[in-house]
Every structure is written in C-alpha cells, then in structure tokens.
C-alpha cells in the first residue's frame, strides 16, 4: 500500500479521518509541491445550522487549512433546490428564497468556527453554486455535459438503487443531482483552481462523477472522503441522542453541546479524542490508557476540547463549570437550561415545558421508572405539583435521569 508523505494526509490518517481517495499517490504529490492545494466541501442549505453529522468533513477541512492549504466552502444554493437523494426515502420539501437565505447565513456561521475566512493565500472563501447555475440553459447543459453521464451507471448508485429497490418514488429532479454536483467540481476548478473535493463516505459516487467529468475535459481532479462514523453500538454517530446535535449556539446551547460529548460511550472516547480534538497524539495515547472510573477524566477533556473548537474557550469553560457545579457540588450551574415559571404546574406538564421529556407518555414512563426528581428528591406520582413554593432562591431544579436537568425560575 502506498505510504503517504504529505503532512495533511499523515495527520488525517493518524487521527482516523481518512476513508478513501480517488488517486492517493497523485494527491499526495500535489500536496508536496509547496504551494497551497485548493479543495472544497459542499453543503446544501437544508437547515439554518450544520449538525454533528457534518463534523467529520468539517474537521478534515480544518486540518487541510491548518497544514497550509486553501479551503472553499461551497453553499448549494442551486443543488439545495433539488435535494440529494442519498440516505433519504422521499424527496425534500421545496423551500422559499427567504428560507434559503436564512439557511445559507446559518451554515456560514457554522463553518466559520472551523476555518478562517479572508483574502489570504490559505484563507477560506465561501461560494454559492447558484451563481453559475442561474444562467445556464437546460438544453445547453444537456448537450455539453449530459452526453458524459451513463444512465446505466447512475442507476447503480447506492442512493438511487435503494430507492428503486424499496419501490420508493425518485423524481427526475433528484435523479439529476449527481450531474449538478459533478458540474460543480468542474466549474469550481475553472473559477477558483480547486482540484480536490471532500465529502462523507456516502458522497463517493457523486464526487467521483466530478472527477470523471473533469477527466473528459483534460483536468486532473481528486476525491477524498471521510469515514462513516458509528458509535460502539454501530449507530450512526450523533443519531442516538434522538435530536440533531446542532453546531450553532441558537439551535443548541453550549452546555448541551458539552454534555453530548461528556456522555458518549466509554468505548468511543479514544476514537473521538483523535477525530474531534486538536490534542497531540502523544497526549491522547496517555488518555487511552485510562481504565474504569478514570475514563471520566478523559471524557471531561473530550467535552471541553470539542466544545472549545465549536463554541470557543469561554463557552467551553462555562459549560465545564456548570457541569461541575451541578453534578459534583450539588448546585445549579448557570448554564443549565432555564425556563420562566409563571404558575404552579403538574410534574408531567413541567417535564414537557422544559423539554426534559418529549411526550406525556414519556414523562409518565420516566416517573414510573423512578427517574424524575425535583430539587434532587424523587417523584413517584404523576399527579405531583411543582409548586412555586418549592423554589430555592427563586429556582427549582428538575432532573430526568442522572444527566438531563433544567431550572424553573420563579
């Protein structure tokens, strides 16, 4: 097997961020030339924040810039109107221009946490593929580029094949997605000199389509994908929480983001320290030797370091202090989710109001399981009333299980 020599490929390999590349040796040689390689990562504006599912690819691009290369963040203002069929069982709902603009601004905010934007040689830039698609005539596009795409090959794509095998609808609009993404690669090479596209393992087919299209026009392009990250139980990373783990503060407070990392499975800590922190490998190797209860110290470091990258050191320190005050000192840390309580309310309604339970049946199930507390006192009756008189210094602490807590403020 070819042994990579460039700093970037060595870093992402050592940290478990590398899945596959279309021409590993060729890409390595480009990275060794001494001039910044330009590469890009695309994101469709389907929400107003990226989430933890995007984090591996963002982390790769972070190291790409950190090792002297230039990242491009491509916002899919055009492809987002189509919707990538990968991993989906139905077509995405259409969005208004107003929602697209809001989502694009939110995605830029997510990306700014992981790489520096500016006008410098290795500074990141953000581009929108709507800028080149909006003036393209469909007939011109088909006659110039459509001839290079085989329907036979497109039907073999995993995202298409799964839909057809399950007899789930696949619109012609979605079927065109891989053509658009391939054209993006050729266009972004022409406009900005990008020769490398990053993506998750599930994007391999779409990215390689761009590499193949570039070859038809005499351009050498490269694909590099991140591994599909699963937890110790084989579940796609971040999915087991039940809700999306958003990267933007408005969507998920820093304390909740910190707690996500603090509560990962012990078996995943080593892998996550390598992928999602900037700690030196030598320091991670020391943490990997911890066993039993000592693993909690490694999990605290993971939570702090991962939160620091995404939310900043001050937010990470504040979340860390809140967790310590709440779980170690028996207090009510200032970053706990806080809700204004106007009147007395039943325990079931209080759990719904604070989001500690998702439904009344979920709340009652947790009460029966002896998992609900008010001010650290177990609640055994679903008719229990959370009265304003229970407050301590104007606050009532609700707990669902050992780790999920919220404050009702009088």
Give the integer mean of the pLDDT values.
Answer: 86
Based on the structure, what is the oligomeric state of the protein chains?
A: single chain
What structural category characterises the helix and strand content?
A: alpha/beta
How far apart the termini lie comes to 65 Å
- Spatial sequence of strands, sheet with the most strands: 1-6-5-2-3-4
What share of the residues lie within helices? Answer: 40-55%
Topology, number of strands: 13
Parts with pLDDT < 50 across at least 5 consecutive residues = 87-91
Shape: globular
Radius of gyration: 24 Å
How many separate helices? 18
Largest sheet features:
6 strands, mixed
How much of the polypeptide forms β-strand, as a percent range?
A: 5-15%
Question: What characteristics describe this protein?
Answer:
globular, 43% helix, alpha/beta, 18 helices, six-stranded mixed β-sheet, five-stranded mixed β-sheet, single chain, 410 residues
Task: Summarize the structure in words.
- The chain is α/β, with parallel strands linked by helices.
- The protein is built from 18 helices and 13 strands.
- It has helices spanning 7-14, 24-31, 55-66, 97-111, 130-133, 138-145, 151-156, 158-165, 172-175, 177-192, 204-216, 254-262, 269-276, 281-287, 295-311, 313-328, 347-353, 360-368, and strands spanning 20-21, 38-43, 70-75, 125-128, 196-200, 222-226, 338-340, 345-346, 372-374, 377-378, 385-386, 395-400, 404-409.
- The strands form three sheets. It has a six-stranded mixed sheet with strand order 1-6-5-2-3-4, sandwiched between helices. A five-stranded mixed sheet has the order 7-13-12-9-10.
- Strand 5, helix 11 and strand 6 form a beta-alpha-beta unit.
- Helix 12 crosses helix 16 (313-328), helix 13 packs parallel to helix 15 (295-311) and helix 15 runs antiparallel to helix 16 (313-328).
- The N and C termini lie far apart (65 Å).
């Amino acid at each position: 097997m070819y042994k990579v020599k460039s700093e970037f490929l060595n870093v992402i390999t050592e940290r478990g961020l590398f899945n596959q590349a279309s021409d590993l040796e060729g890409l390595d040689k480009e990275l060794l030339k001494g001039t910044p390689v330009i590469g890009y990562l695309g994101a469709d504006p389907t929400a107003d924040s990226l989430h933890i599912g995007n984090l591996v690819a963002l982390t790769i691009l972070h190291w790409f810039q950190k090792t002297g290369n230039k990242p491009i963040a491509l916002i899919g203002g055009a492809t987002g109107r189509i919707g990538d069929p990968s991993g989906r069982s139905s077509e995405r709902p259409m969005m208004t221009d107003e929602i697209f603009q809001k989502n694009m601004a939110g995605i830029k905010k997510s990306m700014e946490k992981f790489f520096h934007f500016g006008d410098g040689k290795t500074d990141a830039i953000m581009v929108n593929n709507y800028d080149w698609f909006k003036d393209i005539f469909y007939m011109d596009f088909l006659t110039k580029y459509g001839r290079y795409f085989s329907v036979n090959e497109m039907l073999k794509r995993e995202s298409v094949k799964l839909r057809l095998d399950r007899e789930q609808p696949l619109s012609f609009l979605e079927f065109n997605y891989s053509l658009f993404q391939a054209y993006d690669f050729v266009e972004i090479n022409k406009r900005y000199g990008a020769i490398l596209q990053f993506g998750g393992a599930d994007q391999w087919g779409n990215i390689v389509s761009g590499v193949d299209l570039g070859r038809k026009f005499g351009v050498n392009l490269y694909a590099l994908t991140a591994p599909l990250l699963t937890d110790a139980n084989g579940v796609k990373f971040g999915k087991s929480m039940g809700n999306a783990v958003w990267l933007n503060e408005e969507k998920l407070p820093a304390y909740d983001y910190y707690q996500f990392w603090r509560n990962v499975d012990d078996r995943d800590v080593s892998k996550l320290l390598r992928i999602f922190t900037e700690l030196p490998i030598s320091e991670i190797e020391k943490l990997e030797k911890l066993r039993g209860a000592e693993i909690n110290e490694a999990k605290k470091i993971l939570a702090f370091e991962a939160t620091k990258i995404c939310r900043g050191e001050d937010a990470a320190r504040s979340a860390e202090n809140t967790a310590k005050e709440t779980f170690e000192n028996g207090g009510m840390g200032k970053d706990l989710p806080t809700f204004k309580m106007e009147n007395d309310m039943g325990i079931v309604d209080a759990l719904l109001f604070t989001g500690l339970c998702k439904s009344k049946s979920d709340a009652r199930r947790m009460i029966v399981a002896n998992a609900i507390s008010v001010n650290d006192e177990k609640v055994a009756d679903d008719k229990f009333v959370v009265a304003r008189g229970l407050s301590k210094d104007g606050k009532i602490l609700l707990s669902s299980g050992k780790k999920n807590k919220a404050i009702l403020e009088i």
